[in-house]
Amino acid sequence: MDKYDPLRAWLRAGGSRLVTLSFDEIDHMVHGLPRTAFEREQWWSNDDDAPGDDAPGDDAPCHAWRDAGYLAHADRGRGLVAFTRAHPCGW
User: Fold this and answer.
1) Residue 74, number of CB atoms within 10 A of its CB
2) Residue 17 and residue 85 in contact, taking contact as beta carbons nearer than 8 Å
3) What is the Cα–Cα distance from 47 to 31, expressed in whole angstroms?
4) What is the CA radius of gyration of the chain?
5) pTM, to two decimals
6) Contact 21, 88 (CB under 8 A)
7) What's the rounded Cα separation, in Å, for the pair 11 and 63?
8) Backbone angle region of 58, left / alpha / beta, with phi > 0 → left and psi within -120 to 50 → alpha
9) Measured torsion, CA atoms of residues 63, 66, 70, 71, in degrees rounded to the nearest 10
10) pLDDT in tens, 4-35
């Protein structure tokens, strides 16, 4: 089981076009975000090998929201992430 499976499952179950969650809500959902998720917006990149990502490649956290059909847009200043439904033809 991937650490970010609960986020993936939650996004898939909701199905909304736009979902906004706080960093704290996601932290609780996945039983602990790394410190860099709170400190660097790059951690929330939709790219597998984003600078600041603690687990690039196959373990990248972006796989959770991308697999659920979303793109993430972090606002570190407000401590929020807006997940928007990605276009079905690509990222």
Assistant:
1) 19
2) yes
3) 23
4) 12
5) 0.84
6) no
7) 12
8) alpha
9) 80
10) 999 999 999 988 999 999 999 999 999 999 99
- Three-state secondary structure call for residue 18: strand
**Cα 6 to chain centroid, rounded:** 11
Q: Which amino acid is at 40?
A: R
What's the CA gap between 34 and 17, in Å, rounded? Answer: 27
More confident residue, 90 or 73: 73
31: left (phi over 0), alpha (psi -120 to 50) or beta: left
Q: Can you tell me whether residue 22 is helix, strand or coil?
A: strand
Q: Which residues pair with 44 in a beta bridge?
A: none
Backbone angles phi, psi at 21, to 5 degrees: -130, 150
Secondary structure element (H or E) that encloses residue 35, with its range: helix 35-39
d(CA 70, CA 41) in angstroms, rounded, equals: 17
Domain chopping of the chain, boundaries: 5-85
